[in-house]
Amino acid sequence: MITTSIDGAVGIVTLDRPRKRNALSPAGLDELEAAIEALDTPVVHLRGAGPAFCAGADLRAVAELDGEEAHEFARSGQRVANAIERSESVVVAGIDGAARGGGVELTLACDVRIATPEASFAETGVRLSLFGAWGGTHRLPAVVGAGNARDLALSGRTIDAEEALRMGLISRIVDDPTEVVASIADHDPAALAAIKRRLRDDAPPEKQDRREAAAFADLVEDADLADYR
């Protein structure tokens, strides 16, 4: 269900269930969490196999859950999203085709979201009398703003890559996300890790400033700046 490979500085995590549009069952979530946590490459490329990125939760599996199991399924999805967010690697979502429900929520936890012109997005939970419970209710407003988040979550409508770009759900539209991943991975791993930690820091501003200065000083000590002297 989840496959991994390494290409130089890039760890590639593929949601590999194309017949089910890469929908994730409870076992699939466990596999994905393990894959993210096992990789220690500077950059991780999260992608889907086949014509879809990820259809979200496997609804056939969800339909068989009782209340307690559904609670654990939601918590599993949250753990995966948190693992992506907390990873020391820069995690880039390369979205080609449909991202639906939980598939959108996984991308929200990534550091960078890149889409092809064929990508589309929808928070489809409301269509099923549900909602996105893999951290989407707090990450979506943080990424696209409260108004856009309410629109997407309450309407369940589908948007294309161009509209996703306009509202900030993705940062670029490209033909091949692999090229963007490679360009990020070409930078110094220590700088990438430091930047991710600083951008993810939610401490009070004064503490962030101290940490920022300390991290910058560490990088200066190790950087080769001889050509600039």
Automatic annotation (TrEMBL):
Recorded hits in CDD domains, A to Z, give:
crotonase-like (cd06558)
Q: Say which species the protein is native to.
A: Halococcus thailandensis JCM 13552
Q: Enumerate the GO terms in the molecular function aspect.
A: catalytic activity
Protein name per Swiss-Prot or TrEMBL: Enoyl-CoA hydratase
By sequence similarity, the record places it as follows: Belongs to the enoyl-CoA hydratase/isomerase family.
